[in-house]
Design the sequence.
């Protein structure tokens, strides 16, 4: 039951309506039952897995509290077990192939060969963070049922946002009284998410699939190669941001606030800034539980810093899936970050991007180009396909054009332009929202919003025929 | 013995201002606002250790423990060692 399906919208309508109708004491049970049912509908065989993860975290947390002298050992043991589960489900075939010397590109065939519990990468990371936070005294271990609800919570179980216990757990009291703004805020995000996914991402996906199809990259002109790579950058942004908006929107409909995951990533001023804007909850996890502890140990010394940037980002690549393309994508980002840090430390005093205006624009442009180039191995079905695409982008000048209809070029440019003006549009909307505050039934509330919802829903229905799987639900 | 809270607060303000290049208010968010990143937090820890002549074991800390001057004071009082 994908977020962008009519079945899910019906499920959501029933759960949200019941949520606000039943007595507060029954809300927890309702959300838990709905969450387990939602996850089981994805794959009933693995419906027990979040329960097992909750049990591991709960047992380790209790043992840490009961045996203070061995707390570190229990935390480490719990984390090792969680990682072993993740590896067993997600990477065993990849590791086997790697040692057998037959691994290929990204995922496609590999993923198909592994029976894969959806969301495991996300809730395993939440569980690891939970154990570390309990060990560091940031979080108190809740009751087992509440912990299960935390891991099964349907709005974010499939693909995040990756939440911290301290931001979601207190909200799972589920005792807020109804406020109309929950409905408005939730529907705003839901409808926009549906349009992002079903209209923008899915349309771009048709052309991107063609561009990366087995025989095409080698025959693309440079311009087509760049257009396909840019189109994929836009597709994955609108796909994942669309999913995230629907997850955040579902939470808002029952008064729960989930953390944001995107902040106009293609406006990043530097490679480091990109990771403050792209998949922000994963970046935060990596920073807090991997990068900071490693570099704290070495006091930020340059050698370990650069090694950890590249190593940690390579792991981020692998987190997305068992494939060489993901590994290459992560490693490239690690190299971008290391290069930026080296430049920053060379410049000293002030950040590299803030030194001069033209430096700043140069970094912006270089970051954008570097990000687009890195998307190629992320998307390509094999490393040879990725190198063929790069080769086309940098050498097939004056090659044969028009492998695509004019609609592809036009639509990609319109979406790119939308991204360029997105911050300004968001400001205009925020100002309109602010102006309508306290005005009761303003024009914005009684006309603009419902019309926008209806139009968005109409577009969703119109484009519902396209294939609908979210890219990140495979990770 | 650790310095008193007011001494830590003054040192935290001075260190944060030195890193950001501008005056920092006690409640101003440093990390979550993007004013400083996790590497700058490591520099902040070094500065605080020098200014206060203490040791701050960072292995059990997270960057957001240094998100504002008030939190920095709390964090040092919790984990700082003379």
Sequence:
């Amino acid at each position: 039951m994908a977020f962008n399906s009519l079945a899910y919208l019906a499920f959501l309508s029933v759960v949200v309506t019941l949520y606000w109708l039943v007595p507060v004491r029954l809300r927890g049970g309702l959300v838990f039952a709905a969450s387990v049912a939602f996850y089981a509908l994805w794959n009933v065989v693995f419906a027990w897995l979040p329960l097992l993860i909750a049990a591991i975290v709960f047992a380790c947390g209790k043992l840490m509290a009961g045996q203070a002298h061995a707390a570190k050992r229990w935390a480490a043991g719990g984390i090792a077990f969680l990682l072993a589960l993740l590896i067993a489900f997600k990477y065993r075939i990849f590791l086997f192939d790697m040692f057998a010397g037959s691994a290929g590109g990204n995922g496609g065939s590999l993923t198909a060969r592994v029976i894969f519990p959806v969301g495991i990468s996300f809730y395993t990371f939440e569980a690891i963070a939970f154990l570390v936070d309990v060990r560091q005294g940031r979080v108190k271990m809740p009751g087992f049922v509440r912990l299960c609800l935390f891991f099964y919570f349907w709005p974010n179980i499939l693909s995040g946002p990756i939440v911290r216990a301290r931001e979601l757990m207190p909200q799972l009291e589920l005792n807020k009284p109804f406020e109309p703004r929950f409905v408005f805020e939730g529907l705003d995000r839901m409808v926009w998410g549906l349009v992002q996914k079903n209209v923008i991402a899915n349309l771009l996906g048709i052309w991107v699939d063609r561009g990366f199809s087995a025989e095409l990259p080698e025959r693309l002109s440079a311009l087509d190669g760049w257009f396909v790579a840019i189109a994929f950058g836009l597709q994955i942004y609108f796909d994942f941001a669309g999913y995230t908006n629907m997850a955040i929107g579902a939470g808002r409909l029952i008064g729960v606030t989930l953390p944001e995951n995107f902040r106009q990533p293609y406006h990043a001023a530097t490679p480091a800034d990109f990771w403050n804007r792209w998949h922000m909850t994963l970046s935060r996890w990596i920073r807090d539980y991997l990068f900071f502890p490693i570099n704290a140990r070495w006091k930020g010394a340059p050698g370990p810093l650069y090694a950890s940037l590249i190593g940690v980002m390579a792991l981020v690549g692998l987190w997305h899936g068992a494939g060489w393309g993901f590994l290459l994508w992560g490693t490239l980002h690690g190299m971008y970050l290391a290069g930026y840090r080296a430049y920053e430390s060379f410049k000293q005093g002030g950040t590299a991007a803030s030194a001069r205006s033209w430096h700043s624009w140069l970094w912006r442009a270089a970051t954008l180009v570097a990000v687009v180039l890195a998307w190629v191995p992320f998307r390509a079905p094999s490393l040879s396909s990725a190198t063929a695409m790069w080769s086309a982008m940098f050498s097939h000048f004056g090659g044969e054009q028009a492998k695509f209809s004019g609609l592809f070029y036009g639509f990609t440019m319109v979406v790119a332009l939308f991204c360029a003006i997105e911050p300004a549009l968001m400001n205009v909307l925020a100002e309109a929202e602010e102006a309508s505050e306290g005005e009761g039934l303003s024009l914005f509330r009684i006309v603009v919003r419902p019309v926008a919802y209806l139009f968005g829903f109409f577009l969703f229905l119109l484009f519902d025929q396209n294939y609908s799987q979210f890219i990140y639900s495979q990770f | 013995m650790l310095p008193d809270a007011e001494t830590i607060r003054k040192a935290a303000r001075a260190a944060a201002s030195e890193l950001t290049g501008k005056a920092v208010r006690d409640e101003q968010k440093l990390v979550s606002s993007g004013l400083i990143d996790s590497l700058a937090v490591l520099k902040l820890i070094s500065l605080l250790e020098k200014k206060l002549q203490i040791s701050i074991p960072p292995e059990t800390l997270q960057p957001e423990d240094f998100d504002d001057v008030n939190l920095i004071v709390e964090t040092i009082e919790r984990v700082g060692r003379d």
Q: What stands out?
A: The interface with chain B takes residues 136, 138, 272, 276, 287-288, 291-293, 295-297, 299-300, 305, 341, 350 of chain A (CB under 8 Å).
